[in-house]
Design goal:
four-stranded antiparallel beta sheet; 2 domains; 153 residues; 39% helix
């Protein structure tokens, strides 16, 4: 069997050195019972904690609807990395700043509406140039007239 080429990246930051290796293939498409499969991938992350020198290895597998003609290994890896950017900029903020996971709103359209409102608040604060959303939310809570300013009122 011929294995697809590996795309590799090296990143340093957050107190660790991380090597990512990704392989993509469309060889399994005919065998998978998965709608719109374009290719599968195997992503291996090897990272070393700088302070301790401790090494870790993690392998994940995935499926994408993008065919190899639309996204080679390098692009699939960049999309995977971008996913975490979204996770960190939106969901993490909603979880920690608004304690969303412990919300008691669970029926009807309530959960979706609350998520929309939280996203609106985060978006307005980011448009206003705020970097620390938690601090900005506390500031607006203490001075409600700032909320009206954010809305242009």
């Amino acid at each position: 069997m011929i294995f697809p080429p590996v795309h590799e990246t090296l990143d340093k930051g957050h107190g660790r050195v991380e090597i990512r290796r990704i392989q993509t293939s469309s060889e399994l498409n005919d065998y998978l019972d998965f709608p719109h499969v374009g290719q599968v991938f195997r992503l291996t992350r090897d990272f070393t904690e700088v302070k301790t020198g401790e090494n870790f290895k993690e392998t994940v597998y995935g499926v994408t609807s993008l065919g190899i003609d639309r996204a080679g290994a390098e692009r699939v890896l960049s999309y995977n990395r971008a996913h975490w950017s979204i996770e960190n900029r939106s969901h993490y903020v909603r979880d920690w700043t608004f304690d969303e996971d412990r919300s008691q709103v669970r029926t009807g359209k309530g959960p979706q509406m609350m998520a929309c409102l939280r996203n609106l608040v985060v978006g307005l604060l980011r448009l206003a140039g705020e970097k620390n959303i938690a601090r900005a939310v506390r500031e607006v809570a203490a001075r409600p007239h700032l909320a009206l300013q954010l809305l242009g009122l």
